[in-house]
Amino acid sequence: MIRFSHRGICVSDLARSAAFYRECFGFEPARDPGILAGPDMETTTELKGVRFAAPTFRVAGGGPTIELLHFLSPEADGSPEPRSYAELGLFHLAFHVADLDATCGRIAELGGRDLRHTRAEMTQPDGSVRRMQYCTDPDGVRIQLLCVPDVPEGFAHSGIVVSDLAASRQYYAALGFTPAGEWRSGPADRMWMAVHTERPGLTLRAQLLRDDDWNAVELLEVGGVRVDPDRRRRPLNRLGLTHLAFFDDEPRATIGRLTERGGHFVEEAHVSLDQVELHHGADPDGVRVELMRSSRRSR
């Protein structure tokens, strides 16, 4: 059985990011393993001399879980600029909000950026208006704010820019996700798309996927602009969204299915700790995927 666990985010200031996600989106502390270090951690992170914190935070009432990775050694690097639609991989976190202005104000006060120039409106088939805007967290993670009539506040999905939507849909099907809606931009969307994406001429195919627990990811296939073909896994100590993690009772079988569907795993990063066995790999576009199984080693 496969169960979605969490989304990872590498941060430069743990206290600042914890306050940001708590005050802006209601994430509360869930588990804190303290400082992690030693040979097994070097193996699983693929980082020499690694020392890092990895507390998790969860929205009360059974909402999504995030893991904030704060590296003491080697320190985190990377740009705090938001990722581009022209880059493959983990792209954004999306939240439904009731008041765009109030949420953007909190984000700016807590160290994020209010990208007000990306605010756009889209008229739905039923005539209602959907408003949306990008902001960032303190380390440049894109956060999409969605204001949709009659949709309650809360987490919506995480977005992934993919090179082949059909291939990625098959890959994530092996992790328990099924299609929950598809959207394709058209000529009528050109104006608001240019504002929201900051990429005139960009087109999108978007496939929403959900698992049985209503965890959602959105696959984004981009057209109209050149997409960088780089599919290398980003280092875990690179600022921003880092990985997707899953509990898996039979990881070896899952690894076989995912490899057949264009992913790969790194056997050298496999470790079995006192409480959990960890496998690390990537989807067809280099998104880090972590499979976790309760370890059989003696406690």
TrEMBL record:
Record PROSITE patterns: VOC (PS51819)
SUPFAM superfamilies for this protein: Glyoxalase/Bleomycin resistance protein/Dihydroxybiphenyl dioxygenase (SSF54593)
Domain of life according to the entry: Bacteria
UniProt KW Metal-binding keyword: yes
VOC domain segment(s): 3-148, 154-294
Keywords per UniProt: Metal-binding
Name assigned to this protein: VOC family protein
